[in-house]
Design a protein that fits this description.
Bound molecules: 5'-deoxyadenosine, iron/sulfur cluster
CATH topology of the largest domain: pyruvate-formate lyase- activating enzyme
Shape: globular
Largest sheet: 6 strands, parallel
Distance between the termini: 46 Å
CATH architecture of the largest domain: Alpha-Beta Horseshoe
Number of helices: 13
Number of strands: 19
Structural class: alpha/beta
Helix content: 25-40%
Strand order of the largest sheet: 2-1-3-4-5-6
Radius of gyration: 22 Å
Length: 438
Amino acid sequence: MKKYYIETWGCQMNEHDSEKLAGMLSNMGYTSCDNKKEADLIIFNTCCVRENAELKVYGNLGQLKPLKKNNPDLIIAVCGCMMQQSHIVEYIKKKYPFVDLIFGTHNLHNFPVLLANCRQSDNMIVEIWDREGEIVEGIPVIRKYGIKSFVNIMYGCNNFCTYCIVPYTRGRERSRKPDDILNEIKNLVANGTVEVTLLGQNVNSYGKTLDNPIDFADLLYQINEIEGLRRIRFMTSHPKDVSPKLIRALKECDKLCEHIHLPVQAGSNRVLEKMNRKYTREKYLKLIEEIRKAVPDISITTDIIVGFPGETEEDFKETLDLVEKVGYDNAFTFIYSIRKGTPAANMKEQVPDEIKHERFNRLLEVLHKSVKEKNHALKNKVLEVLIEGTSKNDDNILMGRTRTNKVVNFKGPKELIGKFAHVKITEPKNFSLYGELI
Ligand code: 5AD
Ligand code: SF4
C-alpha cells in the first residue's frame, strides 16, 4: 500500500481541502502516514494570507530535496492558495525543480487524474485554473475527527478588503445548495458527528448566488432541525453582513453555539475605510451590543491587524480602545503583511517594522487582560463540554470544548472521549480552563 503525508497551512478551509485530498487518496488505495520519510507521496497544501506562511512553505520544500534524492519514486505535490498566484508558481518551478505536481484551489477535485498523469510523466505537471468552476459535489472526505466535522457552505469572497489576497486565490462567492448541505450533515450525523462547523469566507452572505436564494439564517434554522446533531458553529462572519435575522437565529436555534467570530481588523474608522471593510467602529460596537442583548453569555472572538499602511499612533489607540470596550474572549492578532497584487500593497506610508512589532506587543497586552478576565469569570460555573481527546501536554488529562469554544482540561476516564460531559471550572488560568468532572 502506498503512503501519503499531507502538511496543511492556513485556515479551516484549507484543513478541510486536505480532508478532501485524504478522501480521494483513500479511494485510490493510499493510507496516511505521519512521517515524511516513509511517504510515497508528500502534499503541501499552502496558504498565502501572510508572508510568514509562504516562507514556511519554502523552508519546508527545501528540506524535501534530500528525501527525493534518496527515493526518486517519491512524488511531491504542492497545492492550495499560494499556487493561485503565477509569480509563486514560477518561483517554485525555478527554485524547487524536484516538485512533481502543482495544482490550485479551483481544480482540487481533479487531483486523482493529475496524480495519475504525474505518475506516468517525468516532467513537473502544473495545472492551475484561473477561475472557479461549478461547485463539485460528492468529493470523498476523510475527516480528522469523527465527532466534529467541517462542512463547506460556500466558497470564495467578493469583499476585496484591500489587504487580503483571498478573493484572488479563492475566486468569487458561490454557495452550495441547501439540500446538498443538509444531506451532507445528515449523513455525518448518521456516522457519529455531533458538532458541525459551517465554513465559508463570509458565511453571512450565504445563498445570494443560488437559483432559489435563501439566506444564512434560514439555512441555520433548517440545520437546527437535524435530529441527533448537538452543536452548530460557523466561520467566518463579516460584520457588515450580520443581519437582525441572524441575531434572532443565534437566540432561537438551540444547537447554535454561544460563540461568534467577528473579525474587526481595526478600531479606527479611517483605517477601516482604507481597508474597505464597509462598517465603522460605532456600527461594530452597536452590533456587539445587539448580539449580547440577544445572547448574554456569548463568547466573542475576532481578528485584528496592526500596522496597516497609514495607521497612526492615534488610529492604533482606537484599536486598543475598541478591544477594551468589547472585551474579547480571544483573538487572532496579525502584523500587516504586504500581499503582492492587493491594493494595500501599493499604498504609501507603509508602517516601519519596529513600529508594527511594538504595536503588536501592546495589543497583546490589552487583549490578554481581556481574555484573562473572561476566563476568570467562569470560576465555579458548570459547563457542557464535548470531549475531543487528551490534553496536548498530559495524556492522563482529558480535553474538551465548551459551547463557547473554550478549551477545558480535566481528569476523567478515556472512555469519555467523543462524549459530552458536565465540568465545573475550578481553576481558570490566563489562557485555559481547568475543571472537575461532575
Ligand atoms: N496581513 C496581515 N493579516 C492579514 N489577514 C488577511 N490578510 C492579511 C495581511 N495581508 C488576516 C485578517 C483575516 C485573517 C484570516 O488574516 O485578520 O481576518
Ligand atoms: Fe479577505 Fe475580507 Fe474576504 Fe475575509 S472578507 S476573505 S478578509 S477579502
